[in-house]
Design a protein that fits this description.
The complex is a heterodimer of chains A (about 260) and B (about 325). Chain A contains ten helices and ten strands. Chain A is of the alpha/beta class. Chain A has a domain of about 180 residues: P-loop containing nucleotide triphosphate hydrolases (Rossmann fold, 3-Layer(aba) Sandwich), CATH 3.40.50. In chain A, helix 6 packs parallel to helix 7. Chain B is α/β, with parallel strands linked by helices. Chain B has eleven helices and 13 strands. In chain B, strands 7-8-9-3-10-11-13-12 form an eight-stranded mixed β-sheet, sandwiched between helices. In chain B, strands 1, 2, 4, 5 and 6 form a five-stranded antiparallel β-sheet that branches. In chain B, a hairpin with a 2-residue loop joins strand 12 and strand 13. The two termini of chain B are about 35 Å apart. The mean pLDDT of chain B is about 90. The chains are: A alpha/beta (about 260), B alpha/beta (about 325). Chains A and B meet through helix 6, helix 7 and helix 8 of A and helix 8 and helix 10 of B. The complex binds adenosine-5'-diphosphate (2 copies), iron/sulfur cluster and magnesium ion (MG) (2 copies).
Chain lengths: ~260, ~325
Amino acid sequence: MNTLLEVNNLTKSYRIGYRWLIPQYQRALGPVSFKLEEQQTLSVVGNAGSGKTTLARILVGAEQRTSGQILLEGEQLEVRNRQQRCSLIRMIFQDANTSLNPRMRIGNLLEEPLKFATDMPSKDREKEVYNKLRQVGLLPEHAHFYPHMISGGQKQRIAVARALMLDPHIIVADEALSVLDMSVRSQVINLLLKLQNEMGLSYIFVSHNINVVRHVSDQVMVLDQGKVIEFGDAEQVFNHPENDYTRKLLYNLGH
Amino acid sequence: MPLLDIRNLSIEFDSPHGRIKAVDRVNLSINPGEIRGLVGESGSGKSLVAKAIMGILNDRWYVSADRLRYNGVDLLSLSAKERRKLMGREIAMVFQEPSSSLDPNDTVGHQLHESLPMDECDVSFFKRRKWREERIKAFLHKVGIRDHKRVMKSYPHELSEGICQKVMIAMTIAYKPRLLIADEPTTVIEAGAQDQIFKLFKKLNQLNEVSILLITHDLEHVESWTKTITVMYCGQTVESGYTKQIFKQPYHPYTMALLQSMPHFNAQLSRKSQLTALSGSVPSLQHLPIGCRLGPRCPRAQKLCVEIPKMEKVRGHYFSCHFPLTEQEGKKS
Ligand SMILES: Nc1ncnc2c1ncn2[C@@H]1O[C@H](COP(=O)(O)OP(=O)(O)O)[C@@H](O)[C@H]1O
Ligand SMILES: Nc1ncnc2c1ncn2[C@@H]1O[C@H](COP(=O)(O)OP(=O)(O)O)[C@@H](O)[C@H]1O
Ligand code: SF4
Ligand SMILES: [Mg+2]
Ligand SMILES: [Mg+2]
């Protein structure tokens, strides 16, 4: 199988203040190492503050790492330029309500990443927007709507469409499903599973919903205070957790 | 006698398209010491019902009911002043948007000091400040706020929504109400810390016999914390009964759809396979279907469904549907 993403000894420390004029750092994440193959889903679980969001943000480039190595399709991340990274790994934001600019038509919202990262002519951009709208089960007409004119479930589909815009190979979703209504959530899960099946997408899911994680993942990483305390095949981790923390976490989240 | 007893509650408002029934003859009751879940997707009218109980809907809304009683008292016949007095003493509500219920111009600590009930205070006047501080600290710890000093010095906008919500919950439980209405209390609280709030409610319920109406859009939230559930869709009550019964044997197609949207409900479901999901989305109030409002999305709908189905009762379990699931179909697969 094709390795899309390889992360080696990734760490992140935040400066938390000064003591005697010497900056003090706190390790929020790491060291983390893992590989993600094509058409695979990795879920990241852990208590609040365990570093899940930090990991997601570093992977999509919204945050600088402190040390470690990230290989995207075998190449070091620094070597690749920003445009390439954007098109390989994309994020679905948690709240479509606030992440979609209310003053822009949906067509323009979807077109933005194309404008930013490619030099596609506008006719092709339009075609691409219609394509993606169809892929997520909406209509080309929706391009002319403003976000407030569509339902919450449709907005989340727009968020997925926007993440798909540059044909990424990896999509990162940080708690993007837990805010959804139940019937919308299963619609979006079905959509993501279908896209994975058809296009070989890989996902990194951050979620606290153990039942959903269990349904969609191939691998699970358990974080505690920034450290990986368990990592492996999803069924293995769920059925035979090795660590007490994992056992407790699974129990608390799953009841 | 139920503590709260609601029969056929309707809530309407005038729109340019005529009068719209946002809440359509909803039934709901809570017994003393019970935790009831009120479940429905966003827009189903849960917050409207809660506000109608509290009597805080403005006069744009028309509230009518065959019965709206609290502890035997008909709430609709009380004057606004009498009602406010009763509410202040016995019923407390945690709102969905915490920042709107804290005063933005005042520190959190000051607001907590102002609102702390003093009836349990048994120390001399000079020691009161210290006593209050200790109490506040204890309540903040209970809701999971550790750095109480920083939180108390802050203004609401300096804190996250989650912290504000925890502060609101701390304020509410300090009052020891008889009935607590919690409207999606944990949606703004980070995922890992939500359970702590539910545990706190459960403890409050067990130690102080507080009755609780727990409003949520997620059926999974209520499974382990409630004794009974009422399910709403689009302003109508579709099913209500004991939580255990509803999870074991739903009668209404909508309840079934919600249960099926949880991947673990169906043990035979293989990993990464498609989930059963209702098609379409919740209609807007301007385009409500006539009759059963689930009609256009319902896999079992037939001609008869353009008429509103009556509430039926089977062994303490209520549902309103013309073509309910049979015992066989409803069984957990
Ligand atoms: N911008 C930041 N500055 C300082 N510390 C931060 C920052 N972002 C996150 N942290 C800290 O990093 C740790 C991990 O946070 P986060 O990745 O958000 O955890 P999770 O998403 O698992 O809840 C926490 O202790 C948090 O306080
Ligand atoms: N102030 C308002 N003006 C117009 N419509 C409203 C207002 N408040 C609520 N609604 C409508 O009433 C319906 C029920 O709302 P609400 O009770 O807030 O739903 P829930 O709490 O279940 O998400 C929704 O369709 C909503 O759009
Ligand atoms: S009454 Fe008809 S439309 Fe409504 S839930 Fe029952 S079968 Fe479906
Ligand atoms: Mg996070
Ligand atoms: Mg609401």
